Amino acid sequence: MCGVKGIVLDASLLLATNDDESPSLRPAANYLLRKLRYSNIKTGISYGPDLSAPKVRLLQEIARLYSYNCFVFKSSAIDNFVSEVSLEWGGNIGSYMHVVSSYKDEEISQLISSGWLITVLRSPGKVSDVEYTPGTENLSKIFIKKLEELPLTICHLNKKAMGKEVKTVGYLMKPSREEDFAKRGAFPLNPTPNGLIFVALNYELPISWQLQDIDGVLHKATDDIITVEMSSSSDFENKVTYTEGMQELQRYIRYHPDCRVIDPFSNIYPVLDRLKIQQILGGLENLNSKSCSKIRGPHFLKVVDFREPKLEDKLADAKLSLPNIVKPQVACGVADAHSMAIVFKADSYKDLNVPLPAIVQEYVDHSSTMFKFYVVGKKIFFAIKKSTPNADTLIKLAEEKELKPLLFDSLKSLPVDKDNQQQSQNKDNKQIDHELVTDAANWLRRVLDLTIFGFDVVIQEGTGDHVIVDVNYLPSFKEVPDEVAIPTFWDALKEKLNGKQSTEAAILL
Hints:
The protein is α/β, with parallel strands linked by helices and 509 residues long. Helices cover 31% and strands 23% of the residues. The strands form 5 sheets. Strands 3-2-1-4-5-6 form a 6-stranded parallel beta sheet, with helices on both faces. The protein has a 6-stranded mixed beta sheet with strand order 13-22-21-18-19-23.
C-alpha cells in the first residue's frame, strides 16, 4: 500500500436532509470539509445522476468554495468514474479513497480491483463485520462510526504506508488559529519532506483512541483555559482550569510518557503570568557584559489594589514614572487578559478599570517601532512593526480627554501616532544589536524550555536599551514568508519528537 493520495466523498455523507427544495449539509460534513481543505490531499465530491438539481447545486457550490472537484458516480459506469478521477488528479503513487454511507458488493469489488480504498460510514446501531482500528490488516474496506474519524483514519493509513520513519503530530488549538496555520500548508495529512503527518485532535472522539498511533501532541493549551486564579501560591498548575477535553488529554499524557508534548504544559505556565515573566527577564542582566547595548525587562510593580494608600511611593521605588502601562497579571487564555491602560496621572489609579491583580510596567519611548522576534526550534526570525507613540505624543492625545487613562485591547487596537508613521525600516534595522538579541533568545529558550515562542523588543530612545516587553507561546510568526517559516516549523517539531537538543540559534536576517 502507498498511502492515500485522494479522497472522494459521496453526497449521502454530506447532505443533512431529504428535502430536495432546501438541502443543507450535516454538521459533521462541515467539520470534515474544513479539515480536508488544506490537508494536501486531493478531495472531491461524488453524486449519482438522479440527484435533484437543488442538491447538485449545493454540492457544486461547496466544491467551488473549498476548491474541490465534483464527479458523477454511476453504478453502471464505474470504469468511467475511475478514469475521470485519475485523469483529473494524475497517477502519482498512492491510492484513491471513496467514502460512502452504503455500498453494493459489485461496486466495491470493481473499485478495489482498481486499487481504491473504500471507507464506509456505518449507520448508528448497525453492526459491521469489519471495523478499522490502528493495525487492521484488511485495509481495502474500512468502517468508521463518525465522519470526524476520517482524518485520523487517513493519518493511520499514510503512516502505515510510509513506515516507521514518519512521525504523526496531533494538534489542538482554536479553529481560527488552526486555519491560520493550515492555510499556510503547515498541517498536511501527507508526509512533509522531513517525514511528519499532521492530524487535528477532536474532543468529540475519545482522546485515548485518537492518541494510539500519535507520536506527539502540538497544543495551544491557552485556547482551552476556562479560568486562571492568581494567588500567592507558587503552584501555578493548580491555578489554571482547562476544558474537560484538555483535562482528558493531560491525564492521558500523564500515564503515557512515550507520547511527546510540544511543549509540556508546565513549561507554558510562565508565559501565562506576566509577573513570572518579568521576574525571569531580570536574569537578562547577565548578558550585558560583552555589548555596548543593554538588554533588559521593563521596570514593573505588581498591584493587587489600585486604591492602596502608598501606591505612588511604591511606583517611585520601582523606578516607575508616569505615564505607565498597566496590564492584567494573567497574560492569556481568559477574555480580559489583553484589557490594558496607559495611565498619565497618579490619581487616575483609584478608578482604573483593569483586571486585578495587575502589573504596572514602565512605558518605554521607542519611536513607535517594535521588533517582533520568533524562536522556532534552532532558528530565530524577526519583523519590524509599528507600535505606540512616545509619551509626549500620547500625552497630547490624552489632553483632549483631560489626561484620563487610555484604555485599549492589545489584540484589537493600539493607540498610534497618525502623524508619525513614516520611518525607514533600514534605519530601524541598524538600531538593533542582533548579537545581543540572539544571546537573549538562546537564553530564553534554555530558561523557558519552549520549542516555539515569540518576544517583543523595543529600543529605548536616549539610552539605546533593548527592552523585552512581552513573551508569548506558539505565535503565528505570520510575518515570516511561508516558504521559510513552514519548513523551519516542521524541522523544529521533528527535532522535538526525536528528542534532539537544539543548538544555539542565530537570527535570520
